[in-house]
Amino acid sequence: MRSPALRHVLTHLITPLLMCIGMGLAYMGAFVTPEPNHLPVAVVGTAPEAKVFAQTVKDTAGDKLDVRTVATRGDAVRLLRSREVTGAYVPSAKAPELLVASAASDMGATAVEKVFTPVAAGEGLPLKITDVAEPVADDPTGQGLFFLLIAVSIGSYASVAALGAAGAALAMRVRALLALGVSAVVSGIGALLAGPVFHLAHHDLAGVWGMAWLYSAGILLIGVGLHTFLKRWTTLTMMVLFVMLNFTSSGGLFRPELQNGFFGTLHAFWNGAGFVEGVRSLLYFGDDGLARTVWTLAAWLLAGLAVTAIAALYEHTRRPRQTAATPDAERKHQRDTEDVEQDAEEEAEETVGV
Q: Rounded CA gap, 271 and 286, in Å?
């Protein structure tokens, strides 16, 4: 290609076009056709009739439902509050009842209502629906935590361009310390949004901030470390890791039981799922499952520390030796500095644009 300027523009168009493909595949693959996939539900009762009813529901639904029976309504409530089941049906000749926990997943509660409402209607009975874990009135669908995840994520990965590119002249330890400081600010903003601004968190706001800091620090450290090796391709990599795969598997809109196996598998260990499920545990489920989600976020933070340590060692071994200050060397150094500054500015603009 004869025109260097045209080649430069076309090269920079590769990233947004790849993002277009990746975002389309990820979001449409995860969200367009949600349907139950081994959705766990319970039927209350120990009598033979209850077991036959549960088996009938299972046979009718196939792989869409995983049906178990429990002895009492109290057992069903405990399973819902530990998020082991999405709904529990209490058969009755007069007033059948469906138990749900919409704070765990509003979409999941809707899905089980669609399953059992026709069952009760077929017997000519109205179905009573009881929500044993409702979200706060300020977040009626419980999806505010997903949008909090988006805000904290954007603040984190967008800051990588400034720390990695614009801060390239700084020692890695300085960039790492800045990453930890920025993560404290980003998580503080997240806590303000979750608490005083939108009232998603009516209690344990300090815990929400702590989980947001673990989440943000892991992203920032991974990004700063990767920038040493990937340079301007860091933005695309961060988008893949912490948007395309992260938002879609977080469980913020659809829990894994309403998605295909790929996103359901990611939900078990990805950091966005750790943040969303951890905050849910903190705010709505009495800390049930909180330890596991904290360990998930801590593991990502440790991965970030490992990546930055490897990057620091790499930069140290490749650090050029001091050369004599000849005019040619000074001109070359000036050109290199200008190129680095231009690349940093372009990368920052690209990241902000995204």
A: 21
Global confidence as pTM: 0.87
Q: Which two tokens stand for residue 188?
A: 């503080």
State how far the Cα of 127 lies from the Cα of 117, in Å rounded to an integer: 6
Region 158-183: mean pLDDT is 90
Tell me how far apart the alpha carbons of residues 287 and 290 are, in angstroms, rounded to a whole number.
Answer: 5
Do residues 343 and 165 lie in contact, with contact meaning Cβ atoms separated by under 8 Å? yes
Cα angle at 213 between 212 and 214, to 5 degrees? 95
Q: CA-CA distances (angstroms) from residue 64 to 41, 83, 116, 257, 258?
A: 10, 17, 13, 9, 9
pLDDT band at 349 (very low <50, low <70, confident <90, very high): very low
- As a whole number of angstroms, the distance between CA 285 and CA 289 comes to 9
Q: Which residue has the higher pLDDT, 57 or 320?
A: 57
Q: What is the pLDDT of residues 262-289, one digit of tens each?
A: 998 999 999 999 999 999 999 999 999 9
Q: Are 175 and 162 in contact (CB under 8 A)?
A: no
